[in-house]
What does this fold into?
Amino acid sequence: REWIKQTDRVVCVSKRQAEIVADQIPELKDKIKVIYNPTLPEILNIEPRKEPDDTPTFLYVGGDSYVKGFHILLRALKEIGKQGVKAKFILTNFYSRRSLKVLKALNVKYENLEIDVKGRVKYEELLNLHREAWGLVFPSIWEEPLPYAIIQSALMGTIPIAMNVGGVPEILSKTPAEEFLIKDFSPISLAKKLQVLTMLSKAEIMKIGSALSRRVRKLDNSSKIATLMLE
It folds into this structure.
C-alpha cells in the first residue's frame, strides 16, 4: 500500500476497478486514470462468422470454479430442466470428477437439455464454439475488472448472460445485450434470462451479436495506449 501511494499514476482498465482502488486507498483518487484495454489481437482481425445452431446453444467457459459461478449455473440448469426448456450447453475448462458426475446426472434426468462437457480446448476450437453459440453464460460472482471472456464473446457476436458486477456492465451498456445482465446472484434470474434468449429467432440473435461486436471494437485502445498512459 505504501509503495503504491508513491506512484505518479495508477492505470485501471475499467471504471469499476478505479472505484474499488479509490475506495481502498483514497489517497490515490486523483492519480487514477481509466484506460480500457480489451485488446485481443487474434480476434480483432477476424470478422465474426456466426452460424447459430438450430437448437438454442449456450457456452460456459468457467470450469467448476465457485467464483466463476458454477454453483449458480447448476441450479439454473435444474430450473430450466424442470421447465422443459429445450437447450444445449457446451462447457469448457476443468471439472472435477464430482462435478462431472453432477452434470451427467442432469443430462440424464432432463431430456430437454443437452450438456456437452468439452473440458479444456484449444483457442481455435473455442472460437469455433462461439460461432454456433447463441449466448455465453457468465455467472461469475467476483469483481473482474474487464473480463476477457465477455469481450471475446461480444467480439464474436455471442450474447453474454452475465452478472452485473465488475467491468461487465461497462462493456455491455448501451447495447441490446444490456437486458441480459443479472442484477442479483439468483439462479432463478439466470434461468429466466436463458429462457428469454431461447425465445429469440436466429435472425434476432445475429442482429444483437453484430451490435455487440461493433460496440466492443470501439473500446479498442491498442493503437494509442502508450500515448494515453503518458498523458
Observations:
- The first helix runs from residue 2 to 5.
- The longest strand covers residues 113-119.
- The radius of gyration is 19 Å.
- DSSP finds eleven helices and seven strands in the chain.
